[in-house]
Each structure stands twice: as structure tokens, then as C-alpha cells.
Amino acid sequence: MGNCSRSPATQLSSTETRQVEAESQSKDESEVNIDLEHAKQEFEAKYAQSSKQTAKIEDFQLETTIGTGTFGYVVLAKYENRSLALKIMEKHVIVELGQVEHILSEKHILQAINFPFIVTFICAFKDNAHLYLALEFASGGEMFVHFRNMKQLPEDQVQFYASQIVLAFEYLHNLNIIYRNLKVEEILFDADGYLKLTDFGFAKVVQERTYTLCGTPEYLAPEIITGIGHNKSVDYWALGILIYELTVGVTPFQDEDPMRIFTKILQGSFNIPGYFASDIRDLLSKLLQTRPLQRYGNLQNGVDDIKNHPWFSSINWESLLKKRIKAPYIPEPDKHHYETYEEKELIHAETELYPTEFDSF
């Protein structure tokens, strides 16, 4: 019989090791870039189309209210043996508040996007008095509720959550979509502990800049307040606010008076806790930069400046995107993670309200 011997393990020099790592990272980045290009083509095709109304309210078994808002409320509902979040909006309220354009934009954007860390659109329909958006149900509840119980989160958990927001923004901004609604109330936990961004009521497709004043006061970027025009960099300002809030327990420009909040934001000065390490201090200084042209995410390297920052050095972006990293918090299964609300009766109208305004919904 022949003598089989094992070849000695090949030892790579440090230079060769770095080269292999660089090639691997380049391959991952190339794959992500290809995915982003494909995502843009897919979005543009879907965004240009109007989704057909294939459902009606009678098809849904309404269970319990899981959220409320200015225009309506969100109900946990069953549809084709599946649990969904059904957003019910009143036409007359939307028209009275001058929010028709925002609602139509939300629907058209949601029907055309598809990303792991954003709620999935199922269908949209309307009746005489209401507009309906059926979305996937994130069973883990709002980050707001979890965060309220925790007061503040360990920094490694904040990194895990913030990195998902970074990838969601990278996806949206690649499609020329500004989100403009980041806050703990609009971040949901899926069953696996990963995040889902929801409520695209302020989202907008913008090629260059826009001038609408919208958003939550404590998260508004200076350029939104001054009205000089803003672009996607306002989302990265809001990311800085979120990272600070999750780590500290309060927002950096918090005040009971909204006007004083605006003043603090325009001044751009905030308290840095003594326990903050140098990396998070540096990242926040670059995200909460009052001059948009100097803000991370809005420079020549775009979002890569954020992804390559030392504070995110422990994050493997490809593994995160594919959900290979175990989440630090897994919502307890078979438990209702949403707050309790007073149930509201769905009142129908005999004639169609505002048919022209909502023709494209």
C-alpha cells in the first residue's frame, strides 16, 4: 500500500494575510455594490407603477390596536391566516392637516422597497372613508417600550442596533429616499431580535434637496430648522441623536420647550458623559456636525466614512446584513409586546370621500 502523508500547513506571511483579508473585504464590498445597483433598478420599476387594490377591509380579521398616530391607528389583524399590522388612516384628517402628499409618498415608497431592516409592504387599499396599508407584523414590539424599561443600553448593543440603521439608510439613500423619521418609537423588533424601521410618512424621493419642515423636534437637523434646504445627511444627524439617546438615556438637546430645543440644536453644543470612550465621542462629533457639508455620511466617501469608523470596527457588515450575528435581545415568544390602547370603532361612509385627492392610492 502507498504511504499517505499530510502536507505541512502552509503559513502565510503577515503581508499575504493582509492581502487575503483585503481581497475578501473587496469581494464583499463588490457584492454589496452589485446588490445596491440591482435594488435601485428594482425600486425604479416598482415605484413607477401603481399597485392594484386586491384587498378590502372585510378580508381582515381585526384583533387589537397596537399603535396610534395623528392620522389614524395600527391594528393587529389576520389576513389569509397570517398576522399583519394594518395601518388605518382617516381621509378627512389627512386632508384637513394638509398631509395628502406625504401619505401618497409613503404608499408609493413602501410598495417599491425591500430590505431586511425595513417593514415589508403587503398591500394597500381604500374605501369611502379610509386608507389602509397592510404591513408585516414585527412581533417584538417597539424599541421605545423596551428602551423605556432599560433606561439605557450597553454600548455594544447600541452598536448592533445602530449598524442596522446605517445599512437601512445606505439602502434608502441609494434609492434617493430620505427617511426623516428616525426615533425609538418608529423602530420595531422582529421575532429574531433584529430591527425593522416603520412609518414612512415623512419619507421622500429627493434628487438634490428639499425644504419641508417635518420630523420630531429633538431629532431635527439644523438645516431643517433653518429652512435652507436639506438632503439625506439629515438622516445621519438623526442617527447621531439615536446613538446618544440609547447610550445615555436622553437625547442630547432635550428640553420641555421645543423652541429651546431648536436653539440648542442650532448651537450644536451638548454634554458628553465622562464615561464615553474616545471612539463614540469622535463618531458623535462627526454625525452631530451642524455644518452638513462636514457631516459624516455627506462627505466624498459617503456612508463608508461611518461604516469604517473605529466605533463600528467590531461589526462584520456582511454577516449583519445576512443576520448571522445573534441579537443581544430576543423578544419573548408568544407574548404581546405592544402597549394597550383604547379600541376604536371603524366608522364607514356611504359615499366616497376625496376621490380626486386619493386617486393614486
From TrEMBL:
Pfam families from the UniProt entry: Pkinase
Q: Which organism is it from?
A: Rotaria magnacalcarata
**Basic and acidic residues compositional bias: what residue ranges?**
18-33
- Residue ranges of the Protein kinase domain? 60-312
Q: Where is the composition biased (Polar residues)?
A: 1-17
Membrane-crossing segments per the record: none
SUPFAM superfamilies in the cross-refs:
Protein kinase-like (PK-like)
PROSITE patterns assigned:
AGC_KINASE_CTER, PROTEIN_KINASE_ATP, PROTEIN_KINASE_DOM
Keywords annotated in UniProt: ATP-binding, Kinase, Nucleotide-binding, Serine/threonine-protein kinase, Transferase
Q: Does the keyword Kinase apply?
A: yes
Where ATP binds, per the record, is at K87
* Name of this chain's protein: Uncharacterized protein
Select a single GO molecular function from the record's annotations and give it: cAMP-dependent protein kinase activity
On the tree of life, the source organism's domain of life is Eukaryota
Q: Where is this region: Disordered?
A: 1-33
Q: Name one GO cellular component term.
A: cAMP-dependent protein kinase complex
* Limits of the AGC-kinase C-terminal domain: 313-361
